[in-house]
Amino acid sequence: MSETYLSIDQFVQRVGVSRGSWYLMAARGEAPRTIKIGRRVLIPAASVAEWEATKLEPAH
What we know:
alpha+beta; 3-stranded antiparallel β-sheet; 3 helices
């Protein structure tokens, strides 16, 4: 079973933040876990789901 990954651009588009905000979150340790494959920095989909569960408020 292969895992699905998001690029930083896909993540910021999904969450609705700027790329600059992503780098600030990453510097503060508030971004989802990333991995590096070759020269690409990718975010495992499972890590995004965990991050969304803890960071995003549910809609009312």
